[in-house]
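Appendix B. Raw example, untouched.
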Amino acid sequence: MNRSLTALFAAFEAALVVAIGVGISLAPLTILWGVQFGFQVDWIVFWRASADIWLVGHGVDMIFALDPATAATLGLAGADAAFPVRIAALGFAMLTVLLGVRAGRRVAETNFLLLGELVAVGTFGLLSLAVTLSALHPLARPSIVQGAIVPTLIFGAAVFVGSLRSHRPSTDATIQPIRAAITKQLLRMPRGLRVSAATALRGGLASATAVIAVAAVLLAVLVAVNYAQIVGLYEGLHTEVLGGAALTLAQLAFIPTFVIWAASWLVGPGFAIGVGSSVSPLGTSLGPIPAIPVFGALPTGDLSFGFVGLLVPVVAAFLAAALLRPKFSAAIGDSSRIGWTVATGLGMGLVGGVALGLLASFASGAAGPGRLSQVGPDPLSVGLWAGVEIGLAALLGLLAAPRRSASDDKAAPASSSSAASSSTSASSSGTASSSGETEVLTAPR
C-alpha cells in the first residue's frame, strides 16, 4: 500500500468513527422526525440534537437556554437563565475509544504507520470541528475549542494504543529512529527506577480496573434488585413507545458514567445528585432529583454494611501487588530492595488515584440549572482516597508476599546435588552388595 492509499484509508477510518458516533443518536431521532412529527419540523433540529449528544458524550461543555414556557414547567431555580452542562455521557466516548483502537490496529498494518496516524487524527479533528460548528445555536451552544480538541484527543490516544497492540509490527522506516531513540533513553535510566516505574504503572492500572469491574457488577445487581422501582418510574412518566425508547437509549449512553459513580462509592467519597445531596457507603441523603428511571436503583437511608465496599480497592491493590511481587523481586535484585519496594507501592497508589480521579472528572459536573449544577463525584476526593487506599494496600502486598532469598536459591542446587550424590552412592552400594551376595552364592565349595 503506497502513501496515497494509506492516507485515504486512514481518513476513511476516522470518518467512519465519527459517522457511527453521530449516527447512533441521529438514526432514532430521524425515525422520530418521520413517525412522531410527520416531517413537519426542520430535520436540521434533529441533526443539531445528535451533534450535541455526541459532543456531550465526549465531555464537551455545553451552554443551554430554555424558553420561558419550558423553564416554568421544570420549576427549577435558575432555569430561566442560561446554564452549563459539563457531565459526559461516556458511552459515546467509550465507543470512540473502541473504534479508535480498531483503527489504530488497521493503520499499523500498513507500511506508513506515522503518516496513517497523523492523517487519521487530523481528519477526525476536522470532522469534530465541523460537527461542533454545525451544532451552534442560541439555545444550545457547545464550546468550539473543546469540541475540536477533546474528542480528537480521545480518538488520538485510542489510535496510539491500537497501533501498539497490533499483531503485525509496522515496517515504517520513519518511526524506527524514534523507537530506537526512546529505547536508548529508557535504557539509560537506572534499572531500579525502570522496574519500579513499570511495576507501579501496571499495578496501579490493574487496581483501578478491578475497582471499575466490581462497580459494574454492583450497578447491574442494583438495577436487577430494584427493577420494580425502575418500572414504576417509567410508568409514572407516561411516555409513549418512542419516548420510552429514546429515554432508554439516553440512559444506556450514561451507563459508563454511572459505573464510575459506583466506583466512587466503593472508594469512599461517593457522589452527589444535586447540591447538598450525598450517596456514600455511610448513607444516602437526597433531595428532589430528576424522575429518571435508573435512579430507582439508588440505595436509600443508612447502610449497615456499606463500609464493606471500602474493602474493594484495598483487596484489589493487595492482590495486584502480590501477583506482581515475584517478577518485581527477580528484576530489582537485592540492592536497595526495601527502598524500591516502598517507592513502587506508593507509585501504584499514585497511578491508581490519578486514573480514578480522571475518570471521576469526566463523570461529574453540571447537569442542569439550579441544584443540578453539582452532579457526580468530587474528582479530587476520589483521587486522594483511592491513592491512599491503593498505595497502602499495594505496599502491604509487596512486603507480605513470600519471596525466596539468595541463600535459598544457592542452597537449593547444593541440596539437590547432595541428594543426587547420596542416591548415587546408595545405588552403588546396593549394586556392590548385590554383586557380593551373588559371588558368595555362586562360589565353588
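End of appendix B.
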